[in-house]
Amino acid sequence: MGIEIQPLEFKKNKNGKFRETTITLEDGKDYLKLFDLFFRPRDILGKDFDKIFSGQGEDYHSMMSNSEKDFRAWNGWIFRGQKGSKKLASDFERRFFEIFNDPNTKTSRDLFDIEMGIIREFKRTAGSFYPELKFINDRDIYEYIAWIRHFNGATRVIDMTNSFFVALFFALGRSLPEDKGTYYIWCIDKVWLEHRYKEFMPLEIRKMFKEYDDFGKDVRIQDAILNYVPNLKKTCEKNEKDKRYKHEFCSVINIEPFYKNCRLIRQKSLFLMPTNPYCTFEDNLFNMVLDDDDTYHILRIAFECDRTSAFLIQKVLDGMNINGSVLFESLEGICETLSTKPFFQNDSITVSPQAGINNASSSFMFGDMPKIKEETK
Question: What's this model's pTM, rounded to 2 decimal places?
Answer without folding.
Answer: 0.85
